[in-house]
Amino acid sequence: MRLTVEIRHAFDRKTVDVRFETSVGLTALLGPSGSGKTTTLNVIAGLFRPDHGIVTLDGATLTDTRRGILVPPHERHVGYVFQESRLFPHLNVRQNLAFGRWFNRRRSSGVGVDEVVALLALEPLLHRSPSRLSGGETRRVALGRALLSAPRLLLLDEPLGSVDVRHRQDILPYLDRLISELRLPMIYVTHDRAEVEGRASRLIEIQAGPQAGAGQAGAGFA
User: Which of 106, 7, 125 is CA-nearest to residue 56?
Assistant: First the structure.
């Protein structure tokens, strides 16, 4: 499974220019706030159309702005864990997980509910509402819901950003387990190098530059 990404987009005061190739395992996108990390994930997911973009996954073209190709997000089979948990507050954990499974209703592949529950140790949480979860538990449920959509690719946008330092240490072992047990490309956005050192097989630095001419965004290849 190989992912190729090429993005150029000019905002009001900066230009984002990102190019990389990656495959199974964790690829970290590092950079300061506003450098274009989340924009990169949104282009990969099909949520944002850049000025210029090419995204291919396992040989299939998902985005090609020159050729007018923009596969809808729901047809990309991409799991996305956003900075906010986006769990449904009126559903308990089991029901939130079932919503992820709903997106896999026409596919036989992917991990099952029991496997995800075991992988992320969610059994004690299944009957709780999101309001009764800690920050770390919320992130684990969001991960589980994304995995149950049977993604070919997993996007993680600062998954520990809303979790305090103590609870971050509770989540990292689950991240390590995902990396070792799931044969998926994973793109992990962070501004904290310590989160991904020793975990990521590829590190890509992104730095946005001014819109005009000199100093375009840094592009990384791993």
Answer: 7
- N-to-C CA span, the chain: 16
> Which token pair is 130?
């999101």
CA–CA dist 39, 48 (Å, integer): 7
Which residue bears the tokens 């997993």? 154
Q: Is residue 75 part of a domain?
A: yes
Query: At residue 204, what are phi and psi to the nearest 5 degrees?
Result: -125, 120
For residue 133, being part of any structural domain is answered with no
Q: Can you tell me whether residue 203 is helix, strand or coil?
A: strand
pTM of the model: 0.85
Two tokens, residue 46? 């099909």
Can you tell me whether residue 23 is helix, strand or coil?
Answer: coil
- Identity at 176, one-letter amino acid code: D
Q: Which domain holds residue 192?
A: 3-89+151-205
Residues in the chain: 222
Count the domains in the chain.
Answer: 1
For 77-106, how does the pLDDT look when each residue is reduced to its tens digit (9 = 90+)? 999 999 887 899 999 999 999 887 666 555
Question: What is the CATH number for 83?
Answer: 3.40.50.300
